Predict the structure.
Amino acid sequence: GQQVMQIPQYQHVQEGEDFTTYCNSSTTLSNIQWYKQRPGGHPVFLIQLVKSGEVKKQKRLTFQFGEAKKNSSLHITATQTTDVGTYFCAGYNTDKLIFGTGTRLQVFP
Amino acid sequence: DAGVIQSPRHEVTEMGQEVTLRCKPISGHNSLFWYRQTMMRGLELLIYFNNNVPIDDSGMPEDRFSAKMPNASFSTLKIQPSEPRDSAVYFCASSLAESSYNEQFFGPGTRLTVL
């Protein structure tokens, strides 16, 4: 079946450093969504990318969808302690959303 | 809007007991999803409904798990009998599926511990 892998699994950074998580699918995706889950919380939708090569920004967060629509990335510039959490990508396979394995980000002040 | 509501928030039970988890989706949403999250297996889709009809239950681990959606505002996930390996956080999510490409809104989850 379809698999969506994310690397790294964990990332510890000093506040102010940049952070990037990468998402790779075994199949071509119709679109890609990104979610953030704070410790002890539930996944919360961040953004959706649909077009090949699409890039979207939300303040310090930059999301990119690969040209082949099989990979995506999330880059955070100058991390803050509020960025702590697990970031999931999720891609649609026909009518089912498949979540990636997640990247847990820890930010040290 | 109150968002997706789940109950109970925490459940501790003994092996062999029946467990029922409840979910109220966001009003007007027509798709409902049940997920299970563990450290080992991550976030797994168990089953989802469109317009109260189960569409895909291929993620349901085994016959001990069953889910129902009797109306647009209520769904249950039942485990009978429960086992320690069922311990996890169970999330319910809903979306408005005009197309397949809509964000999912998650509830706060039910943390289940089976002793």
